[in-house]
Amino acid sequence: MANGDNARRVRLRDRYEIAVDEPLPNFDNPPAVAHKVRHVRDDRRDLIGLICDPKMPTRFDLISPLSRIDAPYFMNIRDWGIVDWPPEGRRCPVFIFDRPEGERLLSSPDASFEPMREETIVDQFVHPVYQILRDFRDQDITHRAIRPTNIFRGGSAQGRFTLGECVTAAPAIAQPFIFEPIESCLCMAAGRGPGSLLDDMYAIGVTILTLLTGQIPCQGMSDEEVLEAKLSKGSYAALAQQARITLTVMEALRGLLNDDPLERWTLEDLGMWANGRRGSPIQQAVESRAARSYSFMNKDHYTCRELAQTMSENWDMAINIIRDGSVDTWLRRALGDDAKVNAMNEAKTVPADMDTDDNLVARSCIALDSAAPIRYRGFRANVDGFANVIAMHGESSGTRNEFAQIMQYNLLGFWDECQPRTRVEYVGLYRDLRRGREVMTRTATGEGIERVIYDLNPHVPCKSPLIDPYYVIEMDQLLPAMETMAGDAPDTRHLIDRHLGAFIATHFTSHRGTELRDIDNQADPHLPLLASVRLLSNIQEKSRRVTPYPKLCKLSAKILEPAIKRFHNRGTRKQVTKAMEEAAASGRLLEVLNVIDNVDVINNDELRFRDAMNEYALASSRLAQLEADKHNRTNIARELGAQVSSFVSGVMTTIALIGIFAASFLF
Fold it and tell me: Rounded CA gap, 435 and 429, in Å?
């Protein structure tokens, strides 16, 4: 980072300058923090940038549909990108917005303001939010961050409120407890999921109540107390309490805060009410209450939902009341709910190998409260929130094991069977989750929980420690990040770890070969090194434009140095080492591989090595013979003397015989 003014300004695509030293805390939307932004070519634009938490999922999937929305009362994205952010010492995503004209409606959840009149609420809030959510519905997306602390006074016309952004964090993860329906309140924050428009309608209801009373409902109550009140009284009664509400507003609140999603007001209902249609306030849907309570953990329970929640919070104790049949008796005699009795019987009807305490407790919670999230010990998530839970907590052994057990026991299937209607919107998600369970059982590089994280969350950045600071969410960003990493950490001894392998396996499916399998090869110590470089080389060569990466090539050449030992000839080793240095300077990994993994050079070296081995074996044999002869000179001399004597005597005998024969013949 440069010194002076440049150190206080971060540029985004040479179009915006983000002021590092000019935070705008009044526009923070935790966990995102706001900073002043200047448009390089248009100083008249009043912009802010929200810097996201790089450790949390961001709703990149909304960027495209939001680009098709141009609502005047919505704080929509003007641009976005990933920048080097000095306060974090790493790269972070940033979203650019027009600066809201007015102040935030509530600076904090415990703040208060002057209560508003019904007509003002309808005109300044309901009409604008209705128009915005109508556009959201058309794009099949949800906001999931509707709350007074994310609404700004004023607006572009007629003083109407401006609804804040919804992309800088996972859906509903920062939403205060009070603004979430009961089902979401039962989830861990990461497991709430994008939900449906009905969840946004509930948040609108709580916001209307806030505007009417001047403060967020249930001030001074803990989340646990709020949930208990919602479970026992219903949301409307729990939140409205003693507030003075006219029949007109009561109609809307009872519709918007209805705890039965099938009975909750839709966007059309809200629009007609805002335009003057009035009717009788509908009664809040309240769960059937038993004639007598069921006592568990020193608490009296009159509804199935209350009992299921207490069971989920006292997991190890809940199995006792399930196995002793007392819950079934209470359902049959005190509640008289045959459907619940049948559901509990079904929950306990499992194969012998699945008849475990954890499975029975999880299935019983589903049977008692099928609208609730799937709960399995510490894992509590709506089906569409599973992906975010895995993204944020998947590397925790507890979460990983709980997810695996949920899939093994087919709790997804049982939950789906218990739903009052077929959830066709989850069919694809069911398939992906079931596949994730299979992938988790594999141990190879590119598989396991790491692969599940990226398969279920295609916009989550790669979590590999090698490139985590560079926030890589797309394949085009991978090699530039690794080039920077190679310069920052030149002593790195490996290029592909489990997270990188899984990220590549998810995003580079169509072009990879056997490299990921070769990385796990234990028989050949050189093959994993070559496979990792070859995989990155394939990525480089398949890019839209082949960009040189000299630092990465230099690091790759250094990592591949042990592979040079494959060559037996010293001269060849020197030649390969020199050629690799030259290839690394080209910035193309393929050139490095062509040197170190040249088949002709390898075969020629192997052939010459075999010839040398044969020559060595022959020479060794001769030397051994000579050495043996050296230690047996007497025997050799005796044998040689005997052989010479025999030969000489034979010759002399032959000569004598010839002489005798000649003499007798001549005389």
Answer: 10
Q: Is residue 213 packed enough to be buried (19+ CB in 10 Å), middle (13-18) or exposed (0-12)?
A: buried
* Alpha helices (H) in 336-382, listed in sequence order: 338-348, 357-368
Residue 391 contacts residue 171 (beta carbons within 8 Å): no
Q: Which of 357, 358, 332 is closest to 345 using CA atoms? A: 332
Both 300 and 398 in one domain: the answer is yes
Residue 287's CB: how many other CB atoms inside 10 A?
17
User: Residue 404 and residue 359: Cα distance in Å, rounded?
Assistant: 12
The residues near 664 (Cβ < 8 Å, ≥ 6 apart) are none
Establish if 489 belongs to a structural domain.
yes
Strand (E) positions, 151-228? 151-152, 162-163
Q: Which residues contact 284 (CB under 8 A, 6 or more apart)?
A: 234, 235, 236, 237, 254, 257, 258, 259
Q: Is 79 left (phi over 0), alpha (psi -120 to 50) or beta?
A: beta
Domain boundary among 597, 620, 636: 597
What domain range includes position 512?
A: 468-597
3-state secondary structure 377-445: CCEEECHHHHHHHHHHHCCCHHHHHHHHHHHHCCHHHHHHHCCCCCCHHHHHHHHHHHHHHHHHCCCCC
Going by DSSP bridges, is the β-strand pair 16-23/33-39 parallel, antiparallel, or unpaired?
antiparallel
HSE on the CB side for 453, CA within 13 Å? 29
Average pLDDT, the chain: 90
Q: How many CB atoms lie within 10 A of CB 281?
A: 17
**In this structure, are residues 239 and 284 in contact, taking their beta carbons and an 8 Å threshold?**
no
Cα 408 to chain centroid distance, Å, stands at 21
Decide if 495 is inside a domain. yes
pLDDT for res 566: 76
pLDDT at residue number 3: 44
**What is the DSSP annotation of 543-555?**
SSS----HHHHHH
Q: Are residues 493 and 532 in the same domain?
A: yes
Shared domain for 341 and 299, answered yes or no, is yes
Per the domain annotation, does 78 fall within a domain?
yes
Dihedral (Cα; 450, 455, 460, 462), 10-degree rounding: 40
What domain count does the chain have? 4
Residue 638 pLDDT greater than 70, yes or no: yes
Identify the band that residue 203 occupies on the pLDDT scale cut at 50, 70 and 90. Answer: very high
652/641 Cα distance (integer angstroms): 16
Closest CA to 442 of 552, 354, 361, 517: 517
Do 479 and 364 belong to one domain?
A: no
Note whether 565 and 479 are same-domain residues: yes
Q: Which residues contact 433 (CB under 8 A, 6 or more apart)?
A: 383, 386, 407, 412, 456
For 568, half-sphere exposure in the C-beta direction (CA atoms, 13 angstrom radius) is 12
Distance CA 426, CA 419 (A): 12
Average pLDDT estimate for 485-509: 93
The predicted-structure confidence for 411-470, as pLDDT tens digits, reads as follows: 999 999 999 888 888 999 999 999 998 998 899 999 999 999 999 999 999 999 999 999
- Strand 374-376 relative to strand 379-381, pairing: antiparallel
pLDDT at 283: 64
